[in-house]
Write a structure and sequence with these properties.
38% of the residues lie in helices and 19% in strands. It contains eleven helices and nine strands. Strands 1-4-3-2-5-6 form a six-stranded parallel beta sheet, sandwiched between helices. α7 packs across α8 and α10 packs antiparallel against α11. Bound molecules: adenosine monophosphate. The site of adenosine monophosphate has 17 residues, from α3 and β5.
């Protein structure tokens, strides 16, 4: 009798199995019930093809909230006409199992018409931040991102929104959207999760052949060279950029797109990285952002560095 009691209590405290819903109305109602019970709700939006990077967001979200909602939606609005929307990986069963095991309470899997009904007309654009770096390489991309996240937030209405540093510009755009639209949600960023050799985890790594996968480490090696240069006292952005490109030249399957040394808060290009250099008053954080094509995949990565 006394031995069975603790076991009963443990079972009673266990979370319910992960629910899966498609309808926005049912998602809204489920979250509203939690909010009425004074439970804190965190939200992790994804496009699926779940990996450890996504799962780290779920675990962090869980640690700070009572309930975690995740979404899987391959958002057509953020893909350009010649991009990989049709072949984006969709391992649905595996994704569900991984998210359930990581502690997601509610998985929202909207159908395209749940997000964009035929008479949908609204677009959300964060001016300026959306037009540079990834935004310059992928016109319209960030309008697609901010529009879908505004819609998802309108339905889920979470206390916290969790985003990955892996997509630093995306996080910045969404933080600004939340601030400018006065959306009642706290945005949190989680660090980039990497493979053992340093390659940032990404759903798009699945496109790489074994030879390409071996060379994709060039993005991280380039950033590591930038970090070493900065740690060694280099304060010229042009020379930091050259250090990255010098690494890339050793990897013939890697076609570099950009190396940008920018203010991490504004994405404005920097030239002189000294604290009191020619950009006095600018933020202390420097972002080194890179993009490259490796075989069929277009990969991005970044490094943040604080000027002291
Ligand atoms: P995605 O499914 O690629 O749209 O990513 C969903 C969320 O996971 C975004 O907030 C990403 O920034 C984040 N994310 C993707 N890859 C990683 C990673 N390697 N480490 C941390 N967060 C990540």
């Amino acid at each position: 009798m006394s031995a069975s009691r603790p076991r009963t209590r443990r079972v009673a405290r266990r979370r319910a199995a992960m629910r899966r819903l498609a309808s926005p109305g049912r998602v809204r109602a489920a979250v509203a019930a939690w909010r009425r019970a004074s439970l804190r709700v965190a939200f992790v939006p994804t496009m699926g093809a779940i990996h450890e990077g996504h799962l780290s967001l779920v675990r962090r979200a869980r640690a700070g909230a009572d309930r975690v909602v995740a979404s899987i939606f391959v958002n057509p609005l953020q893909f350009g006409p010649r991009e990989d929307l049709a072949r984006y990986p969709r391992p649905v069963g595996r994704d569900r199992a991984l998210l359930a095991a990581a502690g997601v309470d509610l998985l929202w899997e909207p159908r395209p018409a749940d997000v964009y009904p035929p008479d949908h007309r609204t677009r959300v654009t964060v001016e300026g931040l959306s037009g540079v770096l990834e935004g310059a390489a992928r016109p319209g991309h960030f309008t697609g991102v901010s529009t879908v996240v505004a819609i998802l937030l309108g339905v889920v209405a979470p206390d916290e929104l969790w985003l990955g540093q892996k997509d630093a510009q995306q996080a910045l755009v969404l933080e600004r959207m939340v601030r400018d639209l006065r959306l009642p949600v706290r945005v949190r960023r989680a660090p980039t999760v990497r493979e053992p050799d340093g390659l940032a985890m990404s759903s798009r790594n699945a496109y790489l052949s074994p030879a390409e996968r071996a060379q994709a480490v060039a993005l991280w090696r380039g950033l590591a060279a930038a970090r070493a240069a900065l740690a060694g006292g280099e304060r010229s952005a042009a020379r930091v950029e050259r250090a990255v490109r010098a690494v890339w030249r050793r990897f013939p399957l890697v076609r570099g797109e950009y190396v940008a040394v920018v203010d991490a808060a504004t994405l404005e290009p920097l030239r002189d990285l000294r604290r009191g250099g020619i950009h006095p008053g600018r933020g202390r954080r420097v972002l080194v952002a890179v993009a490259a094509r490796v075989g069929p995949a277009r990969l991005i990565d970044n490094l943040e560095w604080s000027r002291r």
